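Hello again, I could really use a second opinion on something today. My current little project is about how a certain protein chain folds up. You're getting the sequence in one-letter code plus the fold written as tokens. Here's the protein in full, and shout if anything looks odd to you:
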Amino acid sequence: MKNSTLIKNAHIVNNHQIIQADLGIQNGKISEIGNINESLYENKIDAKGKYILPGVIDAQVHFRDPGPTYKGDLYTESKAAVAGGVTSFIDMPNTLPNVLDMHILNEKYKRASEVALANYGFFLGVNADNIDEVIQLDTRHLLAVSDDGLYFTKKGNLIADNPIIMEKLFANCKSIIAIHAEKEAIIEANEKAYREKYGEDVPIQYHPHIRSEKACFEATKNAIALAKKHNARLHILHLTTGKETNLFTNEIPLEKKKITTEVAVQNLWFSEKDYEHLGTRIKWNPAIKTENDRQTLLKALIEDKIDLITTDHAPHSLEEKEQTYFKSMSGAPMVQHGLNVMLELYKQGSISLEKIVEKMCHNPAKLYHIEKRGYIKEGNYADLTIVDLAANWQVTKESILYKCGWSPLENTTFTTQVTHTFVNGNLVYHHGSFNELHKGKALVVEQNSSLK
């Protein structure tokens, strides 16, 4: 068969089990799984001893395009993504201009179709300025609407901090509402107290005290109460506290949940103690918190109170990061290394391969109703990642593909490595080499999905 590839002898991690089998790819789709006649396939890969995962769907990134593309853009960051086994991404609306209308949203899709090496999707932004327009739209064909990152533009853009706007949105929106849950009033009071004590140069270890557990918990609790009142479909982005995990349930399957959440890989890897040696390089909003929070988040993930793993990939230049506390930008690049972090936790015995695949591959497709992706299944797009679970390598400045040129994981040694990444059946990444002839496709929302 032309345009065909056979992957032989692999361990396939899919749908809560691991099997050893061959996998065939034809015309961009998975054609068969089992004991396959290799003479029927044009290209062959022997994956003996390696593992095939469904391609990771990173459902929260900030690729900076359009706008501050000196930090990152749809080409550079999607290239870093596929090197890390990510075959699809969902980008947040805080680009410049903010994605507050369908014209800007469609322009982003057009740009991605020209340059992105991975599959792509985008959220429509919502804030006090465009709330009336958004609730008039039939947003059911969109992945979600979100306020994430829009608070960087101006104060008052966090939905969770604006009860009037939140009530209007939850009462009328026809799609998933994905929000950044922090109470700005609490944060501002904390900032004032620490500024009075330390001036502009607040020690970075106080970041989780300023963007505190209380600021997160109160915002998440209030949003959940309002979502239940209006039977809205709510997704809380990047959970950071153990206390918040008690607000979510594992008593019903994801398909039936109206209220869901996610955790970013950095909140499963770093904790408060890491501020001492990494400083503002691990300054995120919401903040990385205590070791107890890290462990509780991991436990809640395994117990299915937390539904997704994302990276919240948010590149800034080192000059923007290495500033005094109030001037240092929040966010850091992670998309190239997120899967490696989770595989390292697997090697440490903290989580199973099947659970990693569920949270990074299956559940993003399920939660956002993405067609024919997220599972290794005949007829699905061949978005696949092959990993070697016995390959030591170190994150170095030379190996970092982010346009910003740095990583908070620099000098970290991993014991697993992505060797191949297929996007829509095309081998886009192979042992450090890229095939850029093929671009990703737009993520499509299933037409028969019903959100309300």
